[in-house]
Every structure is written in structure tokens, then in C-alpha cells.
Amino acid sequence: MNSEELKRQAAARALEYVQSGMKLGLGTGSTARHFVELLGARVRDGLEVIGVPTSETTRHDAIRCGIRLTTLDEVDRLDLTVDGADEIDPALNLIKGGGGALLREKIVAAASDRMIVIADDTKWVETLGRFPLPIEVIPFGLGATQRAIEKAFVACGVAGELVVRKAKDGHVFVTDGGHWIVDAHLGRIGDAPGLAQSLGLIPGVVEHGLFIGLASVAMLAGSQGIRVVERQ
Ligand SMILES: O=C[C@H](O)[C@H](O)[C@H](O)COP(=O)(O)O
């Protein structure tokens, strides 16, 4: 089975948790797109849900799939968010933002009663950090922000190169919120909650891709089937 089929399987399993009347957070990325497409098929069969997309890309996908949309200004809480991840550790802490959607993804996940992470099992790691950690920053004062990030790294016992993300056309990648992303190549993050806290205090850092304590369940699709891991 190829990785797209595995992602679709994980997405299909998450769909079992969706009930009519739910308000849903709709994630971003290749795995979340499978969920949006499968959800769209159920909506066409009569399922009544309303969604909040976590990116402009997902908003367009959801509209194409016939899913009714709302915003976090119009609704208070969401019942469930289903999203992908770049890395998932045994505490269900995540690295997200490989596609640049981390800011809206975190706002939506934090406004949800439950977050299900869907992925193929290559995303499962013992310790976060092999995947470069996305840090969303304000372009103004980038040098000062980067120096503050490096200080936070030293305090948290990690080190690695910071690279301003470029789009495929060679220009700086700009997020849906108009910010830039610096990818931190750390290799291993021993204390992800501690690093998350330190990064959150830096002026100029809008958000970072460490999702701590947000995911309640992970659905990991592999050649042996789907493993469901609940947060302890
Ligand atoms: O910004 C992008 C998101 O955090 C994605 O959910 C994450 O990068 C995983 O994407 P994919 O399912 O394509 O591996």
C-alpha cells in the first residue's frame, strides 16, 4: 500500500468519530485533504456538519467538496478537529507546520474539544526534532528575533541551523497570515514543552509548530493496519 492509501485509511478511521450536527476543525496538508474529501462525500449523502478550515487551501478544498463553512467569530467551540502532523511522539506532542499552516491550525485545535491526528506511521517518533521545527515570525526585526530564538535554544539544551523558508519559486514563503517561517534544524528536542514555552515568550515569534497537549488521539496507518493511540 502506498503512502497516499495509508493516509486515506487514517482519514477514513477519523471520519468514524464524526456525527451529524458537529462543528469541525478542518486541518491542512496531504493527509487532512483526504479527510476533507471523505467528509465531503458523507455530506453529499446527507451528513450535516459545519467546518472551520485551517488554511486558504483547505477552505478552497472544503468548498469544492460541498462542506458548509463558518468561522471562530461565528461559533464558540468546535467539537472536533482532524488534522495531520509532521511528527508525533508517544505523549502525542506534535511538530506541525511543514505546509506553513501552523498558526491557524493551532488556533483551531485550541478551540476544539478534541483533536484527532491522522498520519501514516512514518510520522511516529520517539523524540520530536528530526523534522525541522517551523517557527512563524514577523518579518520586521528578523535578525533580533532569530538571535532571541537561538538564546532560547541554548537555554533549552538544543542547537541547530535556522533557515528562512523559501517557496518553490525561490521567494520567501509567506503564510496565510502574511508572516514568514524560520525552520529550525534541531535533530532532537529533549524537552518539547519547555522549548514551546520559551519560544512563546519571544517578541517577533507569532507561533511555533510544537503542539503540546492538544492532540487527544492519533490514528497511525501502517502496513499492519491502523494503530489508535490515545493521550494518557
Ligand atoms: O502546515 C501544515 C500542516 O501542519 C500539516 O498538517 C503537516 O505538515 C502534515 O502534512 P502532510 O499530511 O502533508 O504530511
TrEMBL record:
GO biological process: pentose-phosphate shunt, non-oxidative branch
HAMAP family: Rib_5P_isom_A (MF_00170)
UniProt key word Isomerase: yes
Catalytic-site annotation from UniProt: 105 (proton acceptor)
Signal peptide (UniProt feature, chain positions): none
Sample GO molecular function, one term: ribose-5-phosphate isomerase activity
Name used for this protein in its record: Ribose-5-phosphate isomerase A
Keyword Isomerase: yes
Subunit description: Homodimer.
Biological function: Catalyzes the reversible conversion of ribose-5-phosphate to ribulose 5-phosphate.
Protein family: Belongs to the ribose 5-phosphate isomerase family.
Residues in coiled coil: none
Stored InterPro entries: NagB/RpiA_transferase-like, Ribose-5P_isomerase, Ribose5P_isomerase_typA_subgr, Ribose5P_isomerase_type_A
Its EC number(s): 5.3.1.6
Record's catalysed reaction(s): aldehydo-D-ribose 5-phosphate = D-ribulose 5-phosphate
Keywords: Isomerase
Pathway(s) of this molecule: Carbohydrate degradation; pentose phosphate pathway; D-ribose 5-phosphate from D-ribulose 5-phosphate (non-oxidative stage): step 1/1
Residue positions binding substrate: 28-31, 83-86, 96-99, 123
Xref: SUPFAM superfamilies: D-ribose-5-phosphate isomerase (RpiA), lid domain (SSF75445), NagB/RpiA/CoA transferase-like (SSF100950)
